[in-house]
Here is the input.
Amino acid sequence: MGISLEVASTHLTSRLRPTLVSLGGVVMGVAFFLAVSSLMRGSEKDFLKRMIDNSPHITVYDEYRNPEPQPAEVRWADGAVRVVHVKPRAEPRGIRAYRQKLDFIESLAGVRVAPVLTDSAVLVFAGHQQGVSLSGIVPARMKTVSTLQEKMVAGSLDELNADSNGVVLGTGLAQKFHLELGSTISVVSASGASHALRVVGLFRTGNAAYDEGQVFVVLKRAQAVLERPNRVNRFVIQLEDATQARPVAAQIERVSGYKSVSWVEASEDILSLLLVRNIIMYSVVSAILVVASFGIYNTLSTIVMEKTRDIAILKSMGFHARDVRRIFLLEGLIIGCVGSVFGLLLGAGLMQVLANVALRPPGVSEVVHLPIWWGPEQFALAAFFALASCLAAAYLPAQRASRVHPVDILRGAA
Here is the structure.
């Protein structure tokens, strides 16, 4: 191995300019691979973080994934007569015995849960009317499962406990109705009953539809307004590890019987889109290294042509075909290793430059920085692709060199 390494180094240094050109291609390829992939992966992780943090990891609804079978179907499953168009018995919607189910969910490790009662209502103020989603919450629990408290621009969720007639709404809705802290508005439920509420908090999430269509009151007030005493119709759940949302949701649904939807299930189309985007991204950035490997192929092929007589002498001295093949593979490996080291350093510099770029999109008041992912596996992946490309480019010249017949070469030289 020592002699092979020495011969490989001599070959590369004897043709320094082509070697440096090949090395520069690998360096640039690794650097751009790292910069582009870290930017794309950073944007993906930033998007998922925003989506996960701003929405529940699991939501339990007051409905069943599959409709309950009719009693006649259970009793006479193989009956000759089938009863159709049976109207279910009318009863108040909601999760039955929700306190027991709440205790069970809380007993799971790494789980935070908040009961919520939500339904449609109409907001009325100074002749203006708008349909909104009215949610009854327990403020102390809601703060543990959502970022709503962090989005408050005036007042707080705790004000709902101090004022049972308090309401928290979005700044978009407040601007549309010309409301401010202390304003009194009316909320009309589906039954037509009107209730006066006082604005005790304002929030801004940046989502116009949410800021203009969502209002929060304390749970007991929502139960009175919506005429559903001692009822909730969903559980909002956050996990310590969001990647465990699917199995935990399946466990909760199996025990409670109610439909439990994880963020993974609710966002399958988005996750599929991100997967396709990653495939396209890695295909494009890998093509950069493939192009760079052609320079290595050209350099090593030229060395094989120029060093044919030297290869024949080595073989006549006892070098086997595998030894000659190893020499040229080592040349590709040397270029790959040196190019990877300098490429990773240059790529890290490009990543730092991109991370410091500040943007202000039109209509947005906050400055946005490009999301860069500094995961160590991204550096390892860039180096792996570089080494694989260099070895693949060196393989064909190495095979050609290993097939040189020393007798023919030396006889022709004589």
Remarks:
- The chain has two domains: 2-52+270-413, 92-258.
- Residues 2-52+270-413 form one domain.
